[in-house]
Amino acid sequence: MPEWIDLRSDTVTKPTLEMRRAMAEAEVGDDVYGEDPTVNRLEQRAAEIFQREAALFVPTGSMGNLICIRIHCDHGNEVICESRGHIFNFEMASMSAIAGCVARPVETTDGVLTWKHIEPAIRPKVYYRAQTGLISLENTHNIAGGRVLPTAVQDEICDRAHDRGIPVHLDAARIFNAATYLGKSVADITRKVDSLMFCLSKGLGAPVGSMVVGSRAFIEKARVFRKMFGGGMRQVGVLAAAGLVALEKHPPLLARDHAKARRLAEALAEIPDMRLQPNDVQTNILVFDVPGTGMSAPELSAKLKERGVLANAVDPKQMRMVTHYDVSEEEIERAIRAAQEIFAAARKN
Ligand SMILES: *Cc1c(COP(=O)(O)O)cnc(C)c1O
């Protein structure tokens, strides 16, 4: 098997030896009966770390987001989200197919939704218009290049939404990356949202799993919908054990992923006509335009693959690269050299 340098996503991280050992040794029970001690410990630790009442282990982030939307909204409600957001683009329209809601996507240039963007999208409270049931934010914003939502912006949205009686959900898939960038705790940067979902399976490195975090009453409802959506799992402590290692040990490792992303961005930005601002790269994701280089993003993706580097096009013009613990500094240098060679060869033709 070739040794790929895999920059497609931080989901490709494989469980560490420590995770595998913890999985092998995990104490388990039937979690549908609430009897899996490892799951219970993971849920308790997640609640403590976020300084909330309760948390729930769910198989995927998509299911976690869907559960939250289903709880917050009635059928026929609108969900305001950023137009490139995960819940709108990558969750199979589950909010409409299953939760009976319509997405109300709002465009921004940098992925940072502010109250200024949101307020005009809120429906007036009259019986003959669909009602805004939820505002859903994304921190960090994946397709906006791992962008961090400033806490003041997020808090203002929460305050004003709550004044209008509208709840706020946070798709916090990569919230530990945001906390690393801001130098604050995840609790401090999520205090005002009504619910959140974060992923153990991204940069934190667990093989499977996400957590929904909120009040005790909210998590009780979440447990019902998890079962209804087919997510009631049995001796799942084997997965929660890996999740516990991810949650306790891996957040401090994310700074290194950010440094690798920064190095990659700085080197790629030196390629002529590449539209990439290294200062825009705040966390572990780079999304950049390639049109100036005369190559489409899928072409660049194919040429990188010939050189052992995997990275996906977001659309015809934009590439995404994601750093994580399974790609070393040395491999980042090799990826940079591959990109430099591809563009040098393209310029000669
Ligand atoms: C990965 C991700 C999710 C959840 O994805 P799953 O593959 O369903 O676990 C949700 N939101 C964002 C922003 C993500 O990047």
Structure description:
This protein has 349 residues and is α/β, with parallel strands linked by helices. It has two domains: 15-249, 3-Layer(aba) Sandwich (Aspartate Aminotransferase, domain 2), CATH 3.40.640.10; 253-348, Aspartate Aminotransferase, domain 1 (Alpha-Beta Complex), CATH 3.90.1150. 40% of the residues lie in helices and 15% in strands. It has 13 helices and twelve strands. The chain has helices spanning 17-25, 37-49, 61-72, 86-89, 94-97, 115-118, 151-163, 175-182, 216-228, 237-249, 254-269, 297-306, 329-348, and strands at 5-6, 54-58, 78-82, 102-106, 132-138, 168-171, 195-199, 210-214, 285-289, 309-310, 312-313, 318-322. The strands form three sheets. It has a seven-stranded mixed beta sheet with strand order 2-8-7-6-5-3-4, sandwiched between helices. Helix 2 (37-49) packs parallel to helix 10, helix 3 (61-72) crosses helix 9 and helix 11 packs parallel to helix 13. The longest helix is centred in the C-terminal third of the chain and has 20 residues, at 329-348. The two termini are 32 Å apart. 49% of the residues are buried. Bound molecules: pyridoxal-5'-phosphate (PLP). Pyridoxal-5'-phosphate (PLP) binds next to helix 3.
